[in-house]
């Protein structure tokens, strides 16, 4: 079955919206905590790369749940997998062997540099697991009393207390101190900063035990890693015994045009994490490692829901579809098309648009720093043109559509962005 056939067969749910069915935002806000700044849309259903709001208005979805809906919405493979697994067995404890978990782990091991997998429910949990594994390795193998993990400024690793500490952005840490000790920040793509930090931090009982870094910074503005920088990181870690950990939560599972983003950089991590696109929208996270640093023993880390039959069965169907339908080729082709179109827009609006950057189908349009126009302005204007986009910081508009997006849909999104900028600058 071809990629286009799968797209065409996406199940379109019945239209449940109408002009009179206004969503009650007041009732929603009374019951739900205000932890999100929401755009004025209530989404009701989806099919392929399109979604509809509660009033029946259609939008082209270039957010994909923020780089999560790998196969888009209501994909027939996922519908079949969800239906099959929920009717068979959806949850049991990890006190027992779970065949679907073993099958998914084997697929991930066979298609990556990893030897072992731990399953959880989100990217933040996967990164927490990586941090714990690195700390245990530091204490038990490297014999470090007070291990330090280097992370990058402008990074993002999650919303738990440890992962916001690992995140090198003060805005995510405000009011949540005291933060977790044992982290130090360096500038991204700056190898001198890493070397200086290791030299200065390795004193007494303190030593750098791991480097946790994104191959491409997503929330930090869609900034790809530099190949020479990452190769030097690998060399430093090999020479010192420091663990190299990659956060592939947003950029992994084919979004970069390769299955794993580390393939762009010519190096392999010792530990890496995945979530978002792994389940195609079903909540799942994974922390993967080489065998030599898999030092966890029973009882040292766990997850009630992690790796249950339901999520693993669905995630495996996503993985197999990526491979079977050669979707990575579509990611590469549509990514090149999208970047080419965005560069044309940048050339058309040089007073507003600066750099275009990204890999595969994670791309950013950066607005000039010397103008008042913000990414949120572009996103709101694009909504009016029928396209959903998402900011990556105050000045970068992020484009992360489902990996099944078509040539025509990319062109539609580009036209909408062109119109949005034209309207805002008129």
UniProtKB/TrEMBL annotation:
Cofactor comment text: Binds 1 pyridoxal phosphate per subunit.
> Which reaction equations make up its catalytic activity?
N(2)-acetyl-L-ornithine + 2-oxoglutarate = N-acetyl-L-glutamate 5-semialdehyde + L-glutamate
Q: Which cellular compartments is it found in? A: Cytoplasm
At what positions is N6-(pyridoxal phosphate)lysine found? 276
Q: Record's Gene Ontology CC terms? A: cytoplasm
| Residues that hold pyridoxal 5'-phosphate according to the record | 123-124, 156, 247-250, 304
Annotated EC: 2.6.1.11
Q: List, separated by semicolons, the cofactors it needs.
A: pyridoxal 5'-phosphate
Keyword Amino-acid biosynthesis annotated: yes
Q: What is its main location?
A: cytoplasm
Q: Which residues are noted in the entry as N(2)-acetyl-L-ornithine-binding?
A: 159, 303
State the Gene Ontology terms under molecular function. identical protein binding; N2-acetyl-L-ornithine:2-oxoglutarate 5-aminotransferase activity; pyridoxal phosphate binding
Q: Which InterPro entries match?
A: AcOrn/SuccOrn_fam (IPR004636), Aminotrans_3 (IPR005814), Aminotrans_3_PPA_site (IPR049704), Class-III_PLP-dep_AT (IPR050103), PyrdxlP-dep_Trfase (IPR015424), PyrdxlP-dep_Trfase_major (IPR015421), PyrdxlP-dep_Trfase_small (IPR015422)
Give any single GO term for biological process. Answer: L-arginine biosynthetic process
Question: Where does this protein act, in terms of pathway?
Answer: Amino-acid biosynthesis; L-arginine biosynthesis; N(2)-acetyl-L-ornithine from L-glutamate: step 4/4
Q: Which UniProt keywords apply?
A: Amino-acid biosynthesis, Aminotransferase, Arginine biosynthesis, Cytoplasm, Pyridoxal phosphate, Transferase
What Pfam families would the database entry show? Aminotran_3 (PF00202)
Q: How does it assemble?
A: Homodimer.
Entry similarity comment: Belongs to the class-III pyridoxal-phosphate-dependent aminotransferase family. ArgD subfamily.
HAMAP family associated with the record: ArgD_aminotrans_3
What does the miscellaneous comment read?
A: May also have succinyldiaminopimelate aminotransferase activity, thus carrying out the corresponding step in lysine biosynthesis.
Name the UniProt record assigns to this protein:
Acetylornithine aminotransferase
Species the sequence originates in? Nostoc sphaeroides CCNUC1
Ranked from the top, the taxonomy reads:
Bacteria, Bacillati, Cyanobacteriota, Cyanophyceae, Nostocales
């Amino acid at each position: 079955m071809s990629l286009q056939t799968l797209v065409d067969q996406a199940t379109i749910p019945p239209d449940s919206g109408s002009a009179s069915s206004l969503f009650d935002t007041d009732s929603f806000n009374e019951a739900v905590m205000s932890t999100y700044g929401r755009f004025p849309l209530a989404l009701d259903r989806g099919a392929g790369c399109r979604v509809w709001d509660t009033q029946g208005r259609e939008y082209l979805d270039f957010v994909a749940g923020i780089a999560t809906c790998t196969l888009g919405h209501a994909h027939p493979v996922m519908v079949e997998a969800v239906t099959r697994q929920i009717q068979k067995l959806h949850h049991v404890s990890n006190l027992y062997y779970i065949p679907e978990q073993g099958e998914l782990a084997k697929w991930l091991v066979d298609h990556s540099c990893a030897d072992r997998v731990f399953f959880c429910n989100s990217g933040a949990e996967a990164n927490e697991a990586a941090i714990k594994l690195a700390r245990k390795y530091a204490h038990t193998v490297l014999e470090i009393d007070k291990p330090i993990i280097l992370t990058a400024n402008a990074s993002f690793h999650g919303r738990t207390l440890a992962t916001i500490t690992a995140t090198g952005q003060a805005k995510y840490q405000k009011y949540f101190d005291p933060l977790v000790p044992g982290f130090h920040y360096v500038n991204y793509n700056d190898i001198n900063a890493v070397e200086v930090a290791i030299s200065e931090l390795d004193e007494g009982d303190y030593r750098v035990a791991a480097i946790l870094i994104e191959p491409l910074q997503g929330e930090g503005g869609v900034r790809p890693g530099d190949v020479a920088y990452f190769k030097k990181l690998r060399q430093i870690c090999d020479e010192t015994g420091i663990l190299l950990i990659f956060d592939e939560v947003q950029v992994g599972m084919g979004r970069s045009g390769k299955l794993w983003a580390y393939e762009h950089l010519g190096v392999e991590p010792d530990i890496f994490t995945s979530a978002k696109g792994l389940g195609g929208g079903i909540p799942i996270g994974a922390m993967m490692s080489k065998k030599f640093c898999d030092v966890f023993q029973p009882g040292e880390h766990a997850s009630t829901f992690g790796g249950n039959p339901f999520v693993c069965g669905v995630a495996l169907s996503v993985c197999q579809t990526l491979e079977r339908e050669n979707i990575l080729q579509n990611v590469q082709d549509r990514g090149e098309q999208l970047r080419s179109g965005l560069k044309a827009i940048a050339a058309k609006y040089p007073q507003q648009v600066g750099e275009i950057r990204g890999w595969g189908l994670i791309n950013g349009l950066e607005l000039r720093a010397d103008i008042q126009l913000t990414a949120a302005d572009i996103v709101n204007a694009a909504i009016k043109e029928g396209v959903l986009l998402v900011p990556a910081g105050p000045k970068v508009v992020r484009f992360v559509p489902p990996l099944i997006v078509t040539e025509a849909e990319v062109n539609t999104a580009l036209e909408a962005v062109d119109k949005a900028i034209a309207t805002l600058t008129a």
